[in-house]
Design a protein that fits this description.
With 272 residues, the chain is α/β, with parallel strands linked by helices. The chain has one domain: NAD(P)-binding Rossmann-like Domain (Rossmann fold, 3-Layer(aba) Sandwich). Helices cover 50% and strands 12% of the residues. The protein has a 7-stranded parallel sheet, with helices on both faces. The longest helix has 28 residues. The chain is globular. The relative contact order is 0.13.
């Protein structure tokens, strides 16, 4: 990855920031994007490499052509694109306002598609490159309290799998990553049923993998040419596996979890 140009969205914290540090350690040049300029600047300062802080609003689709032109023009190429930005959810579908679905799907699905569509033709014309898409275990299985998030993250897998199939023979590599619980702000920044921010983390997230460990697994997968990577342990790894091997067993497990009071437990955690 020495001297390669990598563009990371959602680079201000969590997995995005960890990937930036890991790529910088390998000598990559970095384009760091997100909305929080101060946080992006802090990540850039941590990375002893050539960096371009390129903030933008993910859902400002009309601005993306100019943003992509600036990113590509920085060094005349982009070798790797990491579609990482996103927001999650903690609410029952039956209680969730439709605007929550609109917002999460816009940020987590339409925005990365829009950005990839700007980069993809140039990357293929240049002989190929690497796209890394951050989905979720919730993009493989339908997980309670995350119906909008599941919809978006399932879409991320489908879109990127199709892009891989169409362009792999042209030199494009696509890695889809499905993390389970990683110690980030994903739960704290998740949306409630009314669209407000949850403001509290989950025990599973707080006890999850470190972002640096997740980033290390992702770089190893890129090195190996892996197409899909589940970054999860324990029950979350089982959930991803069951969805493909024994879906009825998974469906029973998810239903039983809700009947045992999962939603109430999560609500109580947020209220503490």
């Amino acid at each position: 990855m020495l001297d390669q140009v990598w563009w990371i969205t959602g680079a201000s914290s969590g997995i995005g920031a960890a990937l930036a540090r890991a790529l910088a350690a390998r000598g990559a040049k970095l384009i760091l994007s997100g909305r929080n300029v101060a946080a992006l600047d802090a990540v850039a300062a941590d990375c002893a490499t050539d960096t371009l802080v390129l903030p933008f609003e993910a859902t400002d689709y009309n601005a993306l052509p100019a943003i992509a032109d600036q990113a590509w023009g920085w060094h005349g190429r982009i070798d790797g694109l990491v579609n990482n930005a996103g927001i999650s959810q903690r609410s029952l579908a039956i209680e969730t306002d439709f605007v929550v679905y609109q917002q999460i799907i816009a940020v987590d699905l339409i925005a990365p598609i829009a950005l990839t569509q700007q980069v993809l033709p140039r990357m293929v014309a240049a002989g190929g490159g690497q796209i890394v898409a951050i989905s979720s275990v919730a993009g493989i299985a339908g997980v309670p309290l995350r119906s909008a998030y599941c919809a978006a993250k399932h879409g991320i897998i489908g879109y990127h799998d199709a892009v891989r199939a169409e362009n792999e023979h042209l030199g494009l590599k696509v890695l889809v990553v499905a993390p389970g619980s990683v110690r980030t702000n994903v739960s704290r920044n998740a949306l409630n049923a009314d669209g407000s921010t949850r403001g509290e983390s989950d025990a599973a997230i707080d006890n999850g993998l470190s972002p640096d460990d997740a980033a290390a697994q992702m770089l190893a997968a890129i090195d190996a040419g892996t197409r899909e990577l589940v970054v999860a342990d324990g029950a979350e790894a089982v959930i991803a596996s069951l969805r493909r091997s024994d879906p009825d067993a998974l469906f029973d497990r998810m239903s039983a979890m809700v009947q045992a009071g999962y939603a109430a437990k999560m609500a109580a955690t947020a209220a503490d």
